[in-house]
Amino acid sequence: MSFREKSAWACLVTTGVVFVPYFTFIAQLASRGELVLPRVVVAFVAAVLAQIALISVYMTVIALRTRQEPRDERDTAIENRAFRSAHWTLVIALWLLVLGGVFLAPVFPQLISVVFVGQLALLSFVLSELVHYATLVHGYRRGY
């Protein structure tokens, strides 16, 4: 595996390992009606610090064990495809968030909470990043 593929795997795994439990915790808070800003901020800071620690360790190990090759046109094509996939994922998720808020807010007034909408927006960004890294991994595995 190349350095870039290992990096994509590391980012994909750490993002999933950190943010799946984070959003599970947020969903539990929301279901109990305890989704308040102080608890969310503490959970978010913990998630960010965990992600920084994990990715730092993984990238250090990868950098020490793998030689980084110069970027070629295949790397550029794979990265362009990954950015395009992530971009469309983010655009669609944010449009669903906006349209869902417009049409569902009268039926479910708790959806208007700034904290809840903020967490849905964060989920959109995290999904976009997961799609980005998964597309990179897929591109490197397939060889294009």
- What is the N-to-C order of secondary-structure elements (H for helix, E for strand)? HHHH
Mean pLDDT: 91
Basic shape: flat
Our estimate of the beta-strand percent is under 5%
- Assembly state: single chain
- Helix fraction, binned, reads over 70%
Count the DSSP helices.
Answer: 4
The total number of structural domains is 1
Largest beta-sheet characterization: none
The secondary-structure class comes to mainly alpha
How many distinct beta strands? 0
Low-pLDDT stretches are none
Tell me the Rg in angstroms: 18 Å
The rounded distance between the terminal residues' Cα atoms is: 14 Å
Describe the structure.
It comes from Armatimonas rosea. The chain crosses the membrane at residues 7-29, 41-64, 85-105, 111-134. It is a single chain. With 144 residues, this protein is mainly alpha-helical. The protein has one domain. It contains four helices and no strands. The protein has helices spanning 3-32, 37-65, 73-104, 114-142. The longest helix has 32 residues, at 73-104. The protein is flat. The model has no long low-confidence stretch (mean pLDDT 91).
Keywords:
about 140 residues, mainly alpha, transmembrane helix, Cytochrome b subunit of formate dehydrogenase, membrane, transmembrane
Set down the secondary structure blueprint.
Blueprint lengths: L2 H30 L4 H29 L7 H32 L9 H29 L2
Concise summary:
Helix content is 83%, strand content 0%.
